[in-house]
Amino acid sequence: MEDIDIHGAIERYKNRHGYTTFNPRAALIDMDGTLLDSMKWHTKAWHRMMTELGVECTRDEFYLYEGMTGAATIDSLIRRAFHRPATEQEKIELYARKTGYFNEYPRVEIVPDADRMVKYLIDHGITRVLVTGSGQPSNLARLDGDFPGGFPHDLRITSHSVRFGKPHPEPYIKAMELAKANPWECITIENAPLGVESGAKAGAFTIAVTTGPIPDSDMRKAGADLVLPSMGELADLLPCILKGC
Q1: How open is the CA angle 221-131-86, to the nearest 5 degrees?
Q2: Which of 127, 117, 113 is nearest to 239 (CA)?
Q3: What tens digit of pLDDT does each residue of 204-239 get?
Q4: What angle in degrees, to the nearest 10, is found between the helix axes of 231-243 and 114-123?
């Protein structure tokens, strides 16, 4: 495994935010592409639905929208294609259609080693808060089985919890409130630039794991304090990250 300067990343994080300490006791964790290997089906469902609507788009571009609420994604693409905002009815109906398409596809697996990462956090008393831009019941419902004890229902921020989705900091600020933790007591774990930007703006130590096609440079540009190539590497490095070594 390539040597990674965790101590340097933490010191740069503290200096950037003006913090004098870093004492993580809460982990604020994204779902799609971070815990669940679901983005390949989300992007397919979004592309299918939008193409049917007459919106020109590519499947890969939906990786860049990851973290936005469904309503915000629909509104953004409708504005781009038809030069008008999406109506509330369109947001509801089109998201329901996209969800229906997603549910037609094979059951997604968990991201390799995500369960090991979550178990380490549980075993070491780190509060876990789910922070997702999704409101998709099929994925949210399976977290109890895939990550036993990992994400209590009262420690979940979803698209229904916020007014502004990622990249706005509101989702992570609300997650910090649920965790009863200050920003310098939190790490965020993300896999997409919008989520990274949200966590960084909220003031947390933000870790990007490149589980999809997005380049490391985009993660750093969005504000990632640490960029890792896999969830397995994050699981291996968690002891050092939490100790600040």
Answers
A1: 80
A2: 117
A3: 999 999 988 889 999 999 999 999 999 999 999 999
A4: 20
